[in-house]
Amino acid sequence: MISMDEKTLTELLRKYPTTMHGDDGKTVITCVARLSFVHFKEPRRGDNPSSKPMYGCAAILPPAADVSLLRSICEKAWSDRKCVSRTEPKAKPLKKQADNTKWEGFGDEGFYFNCSTINPVDLFNLDMTRAPVDKFYSGCWGRLKIHSYDFDKGLNWGVSLGLQAVQFFADDEKLGGGGNAADGFEAHGNAVNGSRPAQMPATGADSVW
């Protein structure tokens, strides 16, 4: 269930689209997305018991979101891959919500992606002050700084997304389900009410693309 009205969401997508960050062609600040499967407080281990515990979340993109830059960073990571013997990626991070509508918050249209990191996630409020980890939960809205990278683990290979930082944007119904981390975000007033951005302070299923 989404309590944010469509008009507000449309305005947020217009004002805060996904933007490229840095010069590597693999890092973006996303548009506003709804967070799900949030584990920022403690890392979680995947299905493989030998895997490393990771912090991370799923980001549910609004159906109207432009995903062209997300596709671009995935393509860049694959074109720069170390294992050139692999001709096609087996794993792709951008997925269709429609393939997972059993999960609360996932709809019939639009995309989502998973992102993770072995390090604690840098978390920020709208005004770019540090945010407490308890402010983030499955169902809230935020913008994410993510980067793409290639991997090859023998039986599985392709592109994945690393999570660097998250900026809180708005509350909503709860769901069941490197470098300067602040660099690239902007400080904002109440984004939902349309305040102008302030100057950022200088602070330290089926896969597609």
CATH architect. name: Beta Barrel
Overall morphology: globular
Round the mean pLDDT to the nearest integer and report it.
86
CATH homologous superfamily title: Nucleic acid-binding proteins
- Helix/strand/pairing category: mainly beta
Task: Give the amount of beta strand, in percent.
Answer: 25-35%
CATH class value: Mainly Beta
Count of separate structural domains: 1
Q: What is the number of strand segments?
A: 10
Helicity range: 10-25%
Distance between the termini: 27 Å
Written account of the structure:
By secondary structure, this protein is mainly β. It has one domain: OB fold (Dihydrolipoamide Acetyltransferase, E2P), CATH 2.40.50. Helix content is 11%, strand content 31%. The chain contains two helices and ten strands. It has helices spanning 6-15, 68-79, and strands spanning 19-20, 27-29, 33-44, 54-60, 94-96, 111-117, 122-124, 141-152, 157-170, 207-208. Strands 1, 2, 3, 4, 5, 6, 7, 8, 9 and 10 form a ten-stranded mixed sheet that branches. A hairpin with a 6-residue loop joins strand 1 (19-20) and strand 2 (27-29). The protein is globular, with a radius of gyration of 17 Å. The two termini are 27 Å apart.
Chain-wise SSE layout:
Elements: H1 6-15, E1 19-20, E2 27-29, E3 33-44, E4 54-60, H2 68-79, E5 94-96, E6 111-117, E7 122-124, E8 141-152, E9 157-170, E10 207-208
Parallel strand pairs: 7-9
Antiparallel strand pairs: 1-2, 2-8, 3-4, 3-8, 4-6, 5-6, 5-10, 8-9
